[in-house]
Every structure is written in structure tokens, then in C-alpha cells.
Design a protein that fits this description.
Elements lengths: L2 H9 L4 E7 L2 E7 L1 H9 L1 H9 L3 H9 L28 H7 L18
Antiparallel strand pairs: 1-2
Bound molecules: zinc ion.
């Protein structure tokens, strides 16, 4: 199937939709003929591009169910990865803003220091 064939199909009134994973379930995306070709090549890349983020971010967002993780280093030098307070199943762009922030232990908004 090439682009011209897909465009012919689209002009005839057919739309291309796919189901993609998002925290809490699935999302329907409508694809252009060019996106259909990208989709056949790499579904995750296409989905990430559709959302406007790097593919690693999209996959991590789904894997963590939209829950941002702490980016502070523990005393052992490892990345903490505790949940950052504020909820689960966050929209992608909000999740990206908060991921790598601080959990309560490391000075996040519900920590003792933040409430003094
Ligand atoms: Zn932490």
C-alpha cells in the first residue's frame, strides 16, 4: 500500500483510526495517510509523534500509569523513583512537567519542609 492509494481511500471518505494505550485505558487517534504509513512502520514512534513527545516519554507515561516519579538521588546514589504527589493518570504534558520532580521524602509538596 503506498501513499497515493491511501490518499485515494481517504478522499473517498474513509478515515483511518487506531487505538493506542494511554494511562487508564485507550485513546482513539485519527491518522492522515502519511501517518498510516508511519504507523505500519512503528506504532509507538507514530503515537509519540502524534502526542508531540519523544517515544521514551510516551512509553514511560503509559508504563507508570501517568504517575510522575521522583528524580532525586538517594543516599546510595540511585534515582529515587518514588511517586511524586499529585495523582495518577495525569495528562501527558502535565506528567512530563512533574516527572523527575521530588517525592515527599525528597522535599516535594507534601513533605514536612513544604508544609512549614
Ligand atoms: Zn524521592
Amino acid at each position: 500500500m503506498d501513499l497515493a492509494q491511501l490518499q485515494t481511500i481517504e478522499r473517498a471518505g474513509v478515515s483511518f483510526s487506531i487505538q493506542v494505550a494511554v494511562p487508564g485505558g485507550g485513546n482513539t487517534l485519527i491518522l492522515s495517510p502519511i501517518e498510516v504509513l508511519s504507523f505500519l512502520d512503528d506504532k509507538d514512534q507514530l503515537t509519540a509523534k502524534h502526542f508531540g513527545v519523544p517515544v521514551e516519554d510516551y512509553l514511560e507515561w503509559v508504563k507508570t500509569d501517568g504517575t510522575p516519579r521522583c528524580g532525586a538521588k538517594t543516599t546510595k546514589g540511585k534515582v529515587c523513583r518514588n511517586f511524586v504527589s499529585g495523582g495518577i493518570q495525569m495528562p501527558l504534558h502535565k506528567w512530563r512537567k512533574l516527572d523527575g520532580g521530588l517525592c515527599a521524602v525528597h522535599g516535594g509538596e507534601n513533605s514536612v519542609e513544604a508544609n512549614m
